[in-house]
Amino acid sequence: MSSRALSLWGGRLLTILTIAGIGVTLLPYFWMLSSSLKTSSEVFELPVRWLPREPQWSNYPAALSRGAFGVYFFNSAVVALAVMAGNLLVCSLAGYGLAKFRFPYRELSFRAILSTLMLPLEIVLVPTFLVVRGLGLVNSYGGLIIPLAVDAFGIFLMRQYIKDLPDSLIEAARLDGCSERGIFWRIILPNCKPALGALALLTFRDNWDQFLWPLIVASKDTLKTFPLGLAQMEGIDSAAYHEIMAIAVIAMIPTAIIFLFFQRAFVRGIALSGLKE
Amino acid sequence: MFQQRVGWRWPSLSLQTRLCWAGFLFVLPALLHLIVFKFYPMVEAFRLSFYKYDLMTPPVFHGVENYKTVWNNPLFHQSFWVSVKYMFGVSVPEWFLAFALALLLNRGMPGRPVIRLAYFFPIAMSQIVVALVWKFMYNPLGVVNTLLGAVGIGRINWLATEQSALPALILIGIWRGIPLFGVIYLAGLQSIPKEYHEAATVDGAGPWQSLRHVTIPLLTPTILFVMVMSLLSAMKVFLNPLVMTEGGPNGTTRVLPYFIYETAFAYHRMGEAAAASMVLFAFAFALTLIQLRLLRRGGVE
Questions:
Q1: Which fold has domain A64-273?
Q2: I need a surface site. Which of A151, B91, B168, B291 has the fewest CB within 10 A?
Q3: Contact criterion met (CB < 8 Å) for B29 and A150
Q4: What is the reported pTM?
């Protein structure tokens, strides 16, 4: 075989490998979807039943009635959207300030902000709880949301992205008499859509299923997020896997929609913000 | 700049001052938030690690007792090593597999946008969904055993067996991490100008040489970033052990964050939990320092 033919077949082999990898990556999600539509006896049936004989759509309402899932999903949505909004606003403000202005201790501020990447909630769990308790925010939406509303990763991402925007854009607006606030809203934000998209996707995903923090700060049933509800349900009846999978499918929908909506921005945002430094 | 516009010295200075304040005010909300919810708690955690505190009665100064208690607690040592095993067990394969994925996705092939989309889709999936699906698949009657049974491997109760519980969680961690780190690598690959590879090919370099002498050196900052990010995110794992194994069997999956959570909120020993947090922090700090060192060295080249 000539070397040209060899590299052609090698290329095809790699393409097949790439496509086969998709199977490994997505199989668990397929299994979840298929199991959520099975009867309880089909779930563990042998030999493996890849698709249900007849889709059991009634699993979904049955699963939802196993707890106050309407309330839990609502709480998760409130937390995720509020934390996302907080991050988008505060991180882009700070990213702009750090990228395009000179002020005393700017580098120190940036380093201090970056250093909090080493302080995930897991490390400062106890004192953060004490702060929130001191502010009287235990068992409230404020307590669930505010401590998570700013994250150094978002500031880093926005700074990297804004740094690469041309200065002439800002100076032109300034010469036209645009206020600093106006420049931020009308020039900076519209020009950072990819970075904002990436940040929106990542913060929504990470906060839609907040578990550890709500576990500690929200003991009232009306404030529980859906992962707490799910963990509870799972503890009650671990045999009802078809119903647990139904809830998992529902839980997947918002993040899936956001991903499909933002995927372009997401990949571009990560690519353009460069992760250099 | 000042010398150029001597006549405009005052207005230009006041613009300068105004911009100075504007910049500071843009950063202020973020700084305030981080002071209240990161720096202050960090100082507080340090202080608390010298006190005996159960949330009900006022804290009592305790010297280094908490550190001694934690140090003499065999469960802490076990947790520490479980965390170390988990971190490296997840990250090291991730470094290589995510890189391989990025190389595959960077090739020209039919249907590339759809293929990329399929790989990146799982990035959007939340942790609890992942934990529950895998718990279901690892069930003794579940699909993992069924598929292995087809090749003649007997049924294993993956999550309830001491030897297999941690590897089972590690496998999930790897599977979960590859797409995100793959995107980051892919972004890095795409930022390398095509001419570099063309030049290497003209000079007679094969694909391997081109990878070793062009791609990898140019990608060093991304590689270091991925290395540290994957270690730090594996260090924080908490939900999977809690939902899937409750730290068991026999503590073989009780990672350090789980140990801290249990000490604080199940046993109400806040001081000891804070002392254990300090150890976790020292760990994170060391990792980040190493990264900065390596990055600086990488940047010089």
A1: MetI-like fold (1.10.3720)
A2: B291
A3: yes
A4: 0.84
